[in-house]
């Protein structure tokens, strides 16, 4: 590989690292090229990239970044998955594919500048989607206001019930 090609590849990976909110270091040895291409196509739909890169070039790209501590994991056949949107959805996609394709092994990942283990990646994959979490949060924020509205509406309603009871009682006494 030419020196200029290596430099552009390192620059590309550094750019992806800067834009990604999560990265996942995987081992892919033994996966057929056709299966890998299908997997990449599916990842593209969910705002992810999957890059197979030589470890020496990956080490150079990671050097000097906040996630430099993952350099020790860059050994053997390595591929990096970059997530630009929902990290939980990306982790879910990778974990599901690893179940289908046991030759894909999750080694380590990063969430922002924090390094996460393979077990934490699996835990991240079990989180509900962003939309579900937002809906739950909105529901919990709305619940106290709904309760207060119910209580405030209950006061005039109970007063009306009391007036109707008095009216019914007077009508019963007048008729007797």
* CATH third-level topology of the largest domain: Alpha-Beta Plaits
Q: What proportion of the residues is helical, as a percent range?
A: 55-70%
Supply Rg: 29 Å
Instruction: State which percent range the strand residues make up.
Output: 15-25%
**CATH architecture type of the largest domain:** 2-Layer Sandwich
Instruction: Tell how many strands the DSSP assignment holds.
Output: 5
Q: How would you sum up this structure, described in words?
A:
With 176 residues, this protein is of the alpha+beta class. It folds into two domains: 3-127, Alpha-Beta Plaits, CATH 3.30.70; 129-176. The protein is built from six helices and five strands. It has helices at residues 3-19, 33-45, 55-62, 87-100, 118-125, 130-175, and strands at 22-27, 48-52, 78-83, 105-111, 114-117. Strands 2-3-1-4-5 form a five-stranded antiparallel sheet, with helices on both faces. The longest helix is centred in the C-terminal third of the chain and has 46 residues, at 130-175.
